[in-house]
Amino acid sequence: MSALQDLRYAVRSLGKSPGFAAAAILILALGIGANTALFSLVDAVVLHPLPGVAHPEDLVDATGERFSYPAYLSIRDQTPGSFEGLAAWQQRSLSLSADGAAQPAHGAIVSGNYFDVLGVRPAIGRLLRPVDETSGAGVAVMSGALWRSRFGADPAIIGKSVQLNGVPITVVGVAPAGFRGTGFGISPDFWIPIGAWPQLSTGHFRGLSLLTRNWVWLEVFGRLRQGVGARGAQAGLDLAWHRDTADHPGDATEAAAPMLRPTLRRAAGFGRSGNPVGFLVLVVAAAGTTLAIACANLANLLLARAAGRHREMAVRQALGASRGRLIRQLLTESLLLAALGGAAGVVLAGWAIGALVRVPLPGDISLATFAPALDERVLAFSAALTAVTALTFGLLPALSASRRTANDGLKGAAATPSATRTRSVFLVAQVSLCLVLLVAAGLLGRSLQRALASDVGFQPRGITLASFQLGLQRYDAPRASAFLRDLRQQIAGETGVTAAAWMGLPPLSGGHWLETFKIEGSPSAPRQREVSVNVVGMDFFRALQIPMVAGRGFRDDIDLAGAPPVVVINEAMARKHWGSESPIGRRIGIAGGLHTIVGVCRDFRSESLRDEPIPQAYLDLAQHADQFGLDPLVLSVRGPTRRVAEELIRRGARRLDPAVAIFELASFDELLGGQLVAQRLGSGLLGLFGLLSLALAAVGIYAVVAYSVERRTREIGIRVALGARAADVKSLVLAQSAAPLAWGIALGLALGAAAARLLRGFLFGISAWDPLTFAAVAALLGLCALAAAWLPARRAARLDPATVLRAE
């Protein structure tokens, strides 16, 4: 009953201060909403990365070298005492044709016991069985997401055939909703048994036998047998591995023994290049810091509000209310504020999740893959966070307001020095934490600016990219060569197109192909003769505006299929292997034959923005179409806008073959931006949190100074009556906020320097302790703080001493 009375009184009390209540609820909604949205991502990405899998904590990955299929079978059959099962898988790109329309798809080639080891149950139909692996039957399990989006959740899909890579495959089951396997950021559309892969394989894989022991391609994981720990399982795996390698001593590629690691770690992205988990933790820390600033701000506001209610508290004490009763009443008001702010925060979180899933993480990982949602775990977290937040910002003001005696309150005694010190401590905390966020946002923003302004050695602006994989459409080499030639010529002849060219690996896409080569007439030294190779078509250098510094590029009237093979190298390769001599006309043994160097191009960054140019060799696609025409290739089109270029590419591809799927369409700027996701997203989100915390800190400073002015009104009136000037009064008031501001900035700079060390992996072209960033952020915060303190200082300077003293 008393709790209900406290709640009714809290509603009436807050209703009398609607401005304060609205501001508090908004502050809490932003802080709790941001943290709820980010927790939903952490829950989906890190805490529960294997939805639909039974007891994922018992799964381990065999990390290190990948396995050949025969090696996997050998190890699996030798370790029944260590594992309940060992399963194998590998990701592959597919082309899906259904109802006459082709589209790209993601596939997982898996062992027949894959679903059994994971403990997964089907949504409909059945899952793969060991017999599917050995029979070579063309069957597959479809993902729940594709079943709903492409086939309308039609239960009649079971038993029907779809075309995968031009081969009819029968759908035998649908995986449960949310299940996406064990890879980080991977969401396969189909799971296909290893035995069926020879039917679907394309390009270089088409001629490979599953029994080839030197073809190491499979990832392996297992479920630990009950009673067998990770150490015992590792011992069993080591023994089986050494037996297998002893039986096949020629398999040098399988010489490194695998190590067991928890599957949950790999599935959550730990140790992955691009550090997506570290980036996510960084953003979560920023959101948590913003909420901490909000709590400090609200605590300060409640302290000031409680000081204005001292007579009310004194009357309640005089009427018999105990200190515990007063604390409970004040905490009820804080809980009410937090509950309203938490409810609004959940609404904001739902909107924020919808916006965040459209943003990629570093490493080209889409958050949509993890399907974060406001489920029961997230809502429970939000409720717990709301309660903790209410106690954080409400408990100390409640204790402070209830500490004064009824006699002091009725006499109107001034606030105790401890209350003033408490408000100063909260102010220091707000300023220092705000500075940390602004430093982090500033460093990432400066890093992004440096990266965008850096010279990559070519001109990415104005290029549209389209990815094709003709091998997935069951093309043979002659047909693929004709398609590639005809599509490029069609596009190049369109109005507004200045250049169109094929390439195997677009620069700055993160991929590379390293190969050893020999210089004709020079002793063989494989370790010193390694080069990054790319296969490109005619006009590649013109399309990317890469100048030739010597010789020429490829020409379609000379460098024909069957003509003496030629190669273009970059300056880095020329310097490393020929020094000041000209390499033009020299021949190198690469890609299975002798190639004549006909040109040297300018150096440019090929792998990442951080890497300096490395030795590069470019092979002519026209002369190697039989080798690479069935592999993934990218068409680059310079000239028209992206929308026009995309339409030209789609129309040209449909004209040549309507069944060919375009796997990806993007601008080169987007590809470049993929390397700067951390800087773009980090500077944006941390900047948003930093500005919010700056506003909160300014409000906190204003509240503290305004309260101080109100408490010292009589003193200020006397000073003015005795001849103090307006400037003297302003200096007096501003000086009171100067000390906590200075302490806050000093502490914030120290904390910012420590936090900057965590950002080093995301910075480009600047130091983690960039002095310009630290100075600019400190100056910005100082100016905002002085502006917030100036308003009550100006009001104090305008006080009329006669009015003040008459009121006293």
Structural write-up:
Helix 2 crosses helix 12 (323-356) and helix 15 runs antiparallel to helix 22 (677-711). This protein has 26 helices and 24 strands. Strands 15, 16, 17, 18, 19, 20, 21 and 22 form an eight-stranded mixed sheet that branches. With 808 residues, it is of the alpha+beta class. 51% of the residues lie in helices and 16% in strands. The protein folds into four domains: 1-49 and 268-413, no CATH class; 57-266, no CATH class; 424-454 and 685-698 and 710-808, no CATH class; 470-662, no CATH class. It is globular.
Unreliable sequence segments: 409-414
Shape: globular
What is the terminal separation in angstroms?
A: 42 Å
- Give the overall average pLDDT: 85
Helix proportion: 40-55%
Oligomer: single chain
Largest sheet: 8 strands, mixed
Q: What count of helical segments does DSSP give?
A: 26
The total number of structural domains is: 4
Rounded to the nearest angstrom, the radius of gyration is 34 Å
E-strand count: 24
Report the portion of residues in β strands: 15-25%
Features:
alpha+beta, 808 residues, six-stranded mixed barrel, globular, eight-stranded mixed beta sheet, 26 helices
Which helices and strands occur, and which strands form pairs?
Blueprint: H1 2-15, H2 18-47, E1 59-67, H3 69-78, E2 83-98, E3 101-110, H4 114-118, E4 124-125, H5 130-135, E5 139-142, H6 144-151, E6 161-164, E7 167-174, E8 190-193, H7 197-200, E9 218-224, H8 230-247, E10 259-262, H9 263-267, H10 276-308, H11 310-318, H12 323-356, E11 360-361, E12 365-366, H13 376-403, H14 406-411, H15 417-453, E13 463-468, H16 477-492, E14 499-503, E15 514-516, E16 518-519, E17 530-536, H17 540-543, E18 548-551, E19 566-570, H18 571-578, E20 587-590, E21 593-601, E22 616-620, H19 625-628, E23 633-638, H20 642-656, E24 664-667, H21 668-674, H22 677-711, H23 713-721, H24 726-756, H25 771-797, H26 801-807
Parallel strand pairs: 3-8, 5-7, 17-22, 19-21
Antiparallel strand pairs: 1-9, 1-10, 2-3, 2-6, 2-9, 4-7, 5-8, 6-7, 11-12, 13-23, 13-24, 14-23, 15-17, 16-20, 18-21, 19-22, 20-21
Helix pairs in contact: 1-12, 2-10, 2-12, 2-13, 3-8, 10-13, 10-15, 10-22, 12-13, 15-22, 15-24, 15-25, 16-20, 22-24, 22-25, 23-26, 24-25
